[in-house]
Design a protein that fits this description.
With 390 residues, the chain is an alpha+beta fold. It has six helices and 19 strands. Among the domains are: 93 residues, conserved putative lor/sdh protein from methanococcus maripaludis s2 fold (Beta Barrel); 90 residues, Elongation Factor Tu (Ef-tu), domain 3 (Beta Barrel); 75 residues.
Length: 390
């Protein structure tokens, strides 16, 4: 009986010792895991900081930059006239395509035509009078020299001749004004486009210089976009550009850079960029929403974008690992982004090892425990899911 009690005691002690060994091994395993994965724990323990790296490589980047856009008329003209008059007829309606010099609005020019006819007849009469007065005055001068007529008769004849000349000039001006008025009574389109607004109807009295209609030029049509101001250099340098419109899903249209407006929006710090798009069929209309994509292929050194620290779009910093397993904090000049990579324009050579996971806990000069990764996708996994990647 005593033996049995001793046997139970021994078994219990043995189990306790086994449990203690297992706990100790678990603690050692947890410590080892923390040293391998937790930078703060490794730093406190005086151990190398765990990081993952990818090698900077030379290759091509097919970058695409997109901007939200809206279609605008490439030219818009508000029509008016310099005379007042009553509208008698309209030759087009809103939405109609029109060509340059096409008649749009006709004003009542009855009075102007009457003035034109009257001044023309008056001019003929006055010119006849002038032609008759010329020899008459000449004869009076001869007779006056011979003292055969009073001086007053000669003076009256000369004055009549002068008045006839003044009246001819006056009626000529009136006729010219009537001619201009008749021309102004006919409002034509100054360009080919679409009649986008019509502010009068038959019977309306249109005042001088009051808006009567608006013509919009739609071929080409402008596609006006907003792009971030810090991407201005990339906007000016692209290989190809196309636009897609929500009204025509699945279709793309080639566009050409027209101008970069010298303004930036206050709220978004964006620049306004206009692209020209051929629109002979006039299927694209002002107000349509679009997206313009600018594509550019560049050759050079590229690194994963997740490695960047303090990026402002043109410069950034990264940690690289030197041959002594030391982390070095270096500045870079950067360019385009594409497919998760960024173009390195200065500060880095191909083959240098760049930290893509663990860089936020590094300090310049830290000794590291480095894990070389084969791809950016693996680096992204390390960054987002560090526990699962071990």
């Amino acid at each position: 009986m005593k033996f049995k009690n001793n046997s139970g005691f021994i078994i219990g002690v043995t189990l306790l010792l086994v449990a203690m060994v297992l706990v100790w091994q678990l603690l050692l395993s947890l410590k080892s895991h923390q040293l391998l994965t937790n930078a703060d724990y490794a730093r406190k323990a005086g151990e190398p900081i765990p990081v993952s790296t990818v090698m900077a490589q030379r290759g091509s980047l097919d970058s695409v930059m997109a901007g939200e856009c809206v279609a605008r008329a490439s030219a818009q003209v508000e029509l008016s006239t310099d005379i007042s008059g009553r509208v008698v007829s309209l030759a087009a309606k809103v939405g109609d395509s029109v060509v340059k010099d096409q008649l749009l609005i006709k004003l009542d020019d009855t009075v102007l035509k009457a003035i034109f006819d009257n001044t023309r007849e008056a001019e003929l009469t006055l010119k006849t009078l002038k032609s008759e007065l010329k020899p008459f005055v000449a004869d009076l001068r001869v007779l006056r020299d011979k003292t055969l007529v009073p001086v007053k008769d000669l003076i009256d004849a000369i004055e009549m001749q002068r008045r006839a000349e003044v009246d001819v000039i006056r009626v000529q001006k009136e006729r010219i004004q009537a001619t201009a008025g008749m021309k102004s009574a006919t409002i034509v389109s100054p360009l080919s486009g679409v009649l986008t607004s019509l502010d009068v109807s038959p019977g309306t009295v249109l005042r001088a210089y009051e808006s009567a209609a608006t013509i919009s030029q739609l071929d080409p049509i402008w596609v006006e976009c907003e792009f971030a101001a810090d991407r201005l250099a990339q906007i000016k340098n692209f290989d190809h550009a196309d636009a897609s419109f929500t009204a025509y899903p699945g279709n793309t249209f080639a566009v050409k850079l027209e101008k970069i407006l010298p303004v930036t929006t206050k709220d978004t710090h964006a620049v306004i960029v206009q692209f020209a798009l051929a629109n002979k069929s006039r299927q694209l209309l002002p107000g349509m929403q679009a997206v313009v994509r600018l594509g550019k292929r560049v050759e050079g050194i590229k690194i994963p974008a997740i490695s960047l620290i303090n990026s402002d779009g043109v410069s950034a910093s990264v940690f690289i690992i030197d041959r002594n397993k030391k982390a070095r904090f270096i500045p870079l000049g950067i360019g385009r982004y594409a497919q998760g990579y960024v173009e390195v324009r200065s500060g880095l050579d191909s083959g240098q090892r760049v930290v893509v996971a663990g860089q936020n806990s590094l300090q310049d000069g830290d000794t590291v425990r480095e894990e070389m990764l084969e791809s950016m996708a693996e680096g992204l996994t390390k960054t987002l899911f560090p526990a699962k990647s071990r």
